[in-house]
Amino acid sequence: MNIQTSARLFAEAQKYIPGGVNSPVRAMKGVGMPHPLFINHAKGAHIWDADGNEFVDFVSSWGPMILGWGHPDVVGSLHAQVDRGTSYGAPTELEVELARLICEAVPSIELVRMVNSGTEATMSAVRVARGFTGREKIVKFIGCYHGHSDGFLAAAGSGVLTLALPDSPGVTKGTTADTLLVEYNDIESLTALFDERGDEIAALIVEPVAGNMGVVLPAPGFLEACRELCTQSGAVLIFDEVITGFRVAWGGAQERFGVLPDLTTLGKIIGGGLPVGAFGGRRELMETVAPLGSTYQAGTLSGNPLAMAAGAAALRALSEPGVYERLEKLAREVAEGLTAAAAKGDHPFTLNQVGPMMTLFFCEGPVQSFADAKQADTAYYAQYWRHMLESGIYLAPSQFEAAMISLALSEDDITRAAAAATAFFAG
Ligand SMILES: *Cc1c(COP(=O)(O)O)cnc(C)c1O
Quick check: 190 and 121 in contact, CB under 8 A? Predict the structure, then answer.
């Protein structure tokens, strides 16, 4: 495969951009690539790199492109809006429509505020929770990702599981001292933490299906325990549905699993491929946000008309009858193809899947936490990834990410992916 143009562009990029990329995972270091692939264009479920290589895409821009690229309604709405103005810093009918669609779809959201990224959404939701409760501690699960704001860049200290330390230079010890960490699905430790410190906890934030350590499912009773502990202690339960929102169901993971949070964060899909985020929830909480309440939150480009137009068009397309059934079917076929292929090899594997998000972990199952996920053979994943790429299948360049299924995948695309995987495992 010729990737010389990508190599040349990367050399140029490194002159002006740290590491040549605008988000670290794109560097493809996790799979041992000398440089990332630069993307030139995309259509449907296919992307083309700068050298003209075509791939079937299973990344979907990390989730947003659930409809595939070039959906006529999304593209049409963007074309129409471009001519009318791309930002006003004033209210628009478009943002009201997107907000209404979100409130109608997501069971626990009564009021919603638009922001520009998932990072902003989670950061703001935590502020609302702290303002509402008058408490300062937040609880997060190890291996869950909630964007890159300081309080979330916390790593477990050795020994005491819940004592968080900065996980990046530039994050202060003071900031992470307010973050308490627990392993995902560890109901016992979570209960012990709430027993001990429940009255200090402003919020518990959780990816209701973890997607950022690879896909990890909530164990039976886990989300219910999160709900119960928050209700008992007066803490705010935040579901970070930046990935799962409008992916695992029209109403997100909260609909799929039947557990309602107090606040929800959204991003990715709700922007139809443009930069966006949102946080929303119970009226009582959201009414504390300025200008109604005194918890400050703002944004020059928030509710950007292009993002609102694309997002609303995307959600309208997703609201059509049968869409999520079709998505589940496509995802099931992908999962079956990969599982059958991996079973032909002699490396241990386990496939974690919730509908249209899945990860093939190269270790024995079950994978129920970050500690489990870390057992996976990342060198083997890198070999697999390179083989798939050479076969025209574009997977996430890390073992700890998810395959994001899109509605644009054809039966032929799925067959090609399964055949490529079979050649790797059987070969
Ligand atoms: C992607 C993601 C974020 C961060 O969103 P950005 O738009 O990248 O800032 C937050 N939470 C989860 C669960 C995510 O997957």
Answer: no
Identify the active-site residue in 49, 57, 140, 145.
Answer: 145
Query: 49, 57, 186, 240: which is the annotated catalytic residue?
Result: 240
Give residues (CB < 6 A) around ligand 1.
Answer: 117-119, 122, 145-147, 207, 211-212, 240, 242-243, 267, 277
- Which sequence spans correspond to the domains of the chain? 4-70+321-426, 72-318
Q: What confidence tens digit (pLDDT) does each residue in 368-416 have?
A: 999 999 999 999 999 999 999 999 999 999 999 999 999 999 999 999 9
pTM reported for the whole predicted model? 0.98
d(CA 185, CA 221) in angstroms, rounded, equals 9
Give the residue among 208, 199, 161, 198 at the shortest CA–CA distance from 182: 161
CA distances from 113 to 35, 103, 416 (A): 38, 11, 41
Instruction: For residue 291, say if its preceding peptide bond is cis, omega within 30 degrees of 0.
Output: yes
Which CATH number is 72-318's, of 3.40.50.2300, 3.40.50.300, 3.40.640.10, 3.60.21.10?
3.40.640.10
For the chain, the distance separating the N- and C-terminal CA atoms, rounded to the nearest angstrom, is: 19
| H or E element in which residue 340 lies | helix 323-343
Per the CB < 8 A criterion, the answer to whether 130 and 203 are in contact is yes
Give the CATH superfamily of 4-70+321-426: Aspartate Aminotransferase, domain 1 (3.90.1150.10)
pLDDT of residue 164: 81
Q: Is 15 a catalytic residue?
A: no
Q: How far apart are CA 386 and CA 397, in angstroms?
A: 9
